[in-house]
Known about the structure:
373 residues; 19 helices; 69% helix; globular
Amino acid sequence: MLADFQKNPWRILLAVNAAIIGGVFVHKIQLPPYVPYIHLLVDYHFGFIKRALIGAIVALFTDKVPLWLVFALGGATWLVTLGLYARLFQKTFGFTTKTLPLFVFIAGSPFFLKNFMHTLGHFDIYGCALAIFLLLVPAGSLLFVATAALFSIVLVLIHHIHLLMYVPTIITIVVIRHYLTHGCDRTNVAFGIIALLAVSALFFAAQFWGTMPIPEADFVAYLKSRMADPSRTDLLQFAYIWYQPLAKEISDTWGRLPHNVLGVPVFALLIWLHTPLWRYFANLIGALNDTHRRLVVAALAGVSLACLVMFAMVFDYSRWISNWAVCMFLILHAVKMLPAVRETPLIPAEDQKTNIMGLIVTLIPRVGIVRPF
């Protein structure tokens, strides 16, 4: 049995990942959903404000928000994302014995689906799901660029930090799948620039003019009126984030930096454990022509720089590094869709070092929200 595992463990690791995801879900529903719940309560009742789109959609269907809706909505979104990614992997690589190591390193990564289960109800996964959708649909017309712009607007309305978290990856996907694959002309370039300016303008409006316009006590009273159980006032302790200016967020982040930066070596170790995947990604990029290779490298640098800016602004470091890794996974799929000058070998299925790294990656249940684990 041990010999068989050492030779080809990948099917077993898939089963282990599924069991761990179930365990993470059971653990998650035992925790108070503070931030995810309050996001379902906030809407546009008092005018345009940041972080209110999801709550506004919920308000169309119910006046009272039950606590279980956090898990129902979050769980449904997680399942949709799983289904979209499985379809994407099938489209890009196919499900075979040779591609299983690649699937385990991506889908079984503690950065990806397992961490999305731990952060169930948070807004991060919406950016991932919409980016995957853009990797699946036809990209030859301006409708694709318009859809990407619409998705970016939706994400900024869900939470303005998406401009740094998933919008750069969406831009990269559009550039790779539309502009590099189907060519550039005056019309589609102008349309793309206008779309980018519109999304950026919306971000600045949400960031600087999206603050709640009424006293916090009145805001909390309104949130209580939307709660199915108004006695759970402990779930409203994060109402202050709709009043907190950017300067205060940055100040809080830098105040916590000496403690939170201790997690950086752990993040580095987690990234290193994905070495077989990064090596494959580097080989994919190396197989592109010179122009495509330079543009992809520049895009990766841009996405990574946006992640560093998030590190400087908000202290949820485990989430930011996890979403950075997910963005790398999605861009890998986009790069695979580009024409290559040579074939890139897949991750070896019978390499002992790769097997060990795959096992460790599988056994790590999540990365966390603020600090590692």
